[in-house]
Amino acid sequence: MWVIVVYDISDDEKRNKIARELQRLGLSRIQRSAFVGDIDSQRFKDLVRIMGKLVTGKDDILHIIPLGLRDWERRVVINGDSVRREAVSLL
Amino acid sequence: MWVIVVYDISDDEKRNKIARELQRLGLSRIQRSAFVGDIDSQRFKDLVRIMGKLVTGKDDILHIIPLGLRDWERRVVINGDSVRREAVSLL
User: Fold this and answer.
1) DSSP notation for A34-74
2) ipTM of the assembly?
3) Phi/psi at B62 (nearest 5 deg)?
4) pLDDT by residue (tens digit) across A35-51?
5) Beta carbons within 8 Å of A5's beta carbon, 6+ residues apart
6) CA distance to partner chain A, nearest, from residue B77 (Å)
7) Which residues does chain A have within 8 Å of residue B30's beta carbon, measured at their own beta carbons?
8) Which of A7, A33, A65 is the best substitution to test chain B (most B C-beta atoms within 10 A)?
9) Residue A35 is part of which domain span?
10) Any keyword Nuclease (chains A, B) (predicted)?
11) A16, A28, B12, B75: which could join A65 in a potential S-S bond, CB 3.0 to 4.6 Å?
């Protein structure tokens, strides 16, 4: 299953630890605090369990959202002054 | 169409302006730099156009990713020490 993981974590050390764990689980970084990847149901359980241990700050929040591969492929990425459209069919 | 918008913007003023525009377009904030919402194709075009004007910093990046409503409903939110699962069926 494809998922996107996005988070706001105030503690630098914990935020870096979360990024390392997400990489270890096979997800790819798409922004400073956002990862995407294809994981099986065992890895998904691991993901929820590990993140549950790391996201402990009062204002910390992390979302794990299932993502259809078709939806991911239709993303629009805006980077500096270049707009790369993978979503022409949407417009 | 449901979309999630996530961004890394270094300039405070631009980042705040992006958040205001996303709210104006009818999206809801789920984290400091992540919004979700249901928009029609005209609003989607506006979204891409407006964000293209605001995301101009060298290291700035913004993703607009279509999201199935079913997928959004199955999200897992980890908030401080509480894990709210809307995704039991996934596990």
Assistant:
1) EEEEE--HHHHHHHHHHHHHH--STT-EEEEEE--HHHHHT
2) 0.87
3) -140, 130
4) 999 999 999 999 999 99
5) A22, A27, A34, A35, A36, A47, A51, A62, A63, A64, A65
6) 5
7) 61, 63
8) A65
9) 2-90
10) yes
11) B75
**CB nearest to A75's CB, from B63, B71, B87:** B63
Place of tokens 């922004």: A31
Give the number of domains in chain B: 1
Taking CA–CA distances from A55, the nearest residue in chain B reads B80
For residue A15, what is the domain's CATH number?
3.30.70.240
The chain-wide mean pLDDT, for chain A, equals 89
- Give the pLDDT score at B42: 95
At B83 the pLDDT is: 56
Residue numbers in B near A25 (CB within 8 A): none
CB-nearest partner of B31 from A6, A75, A83: A6
Question: In this model, does residue A89 exceed pLDDT 50?
Answer: no
Residue A58 has what pLDDT? 84
Q: Which residues of chain B have pLDDT under 50?
A: 85-91
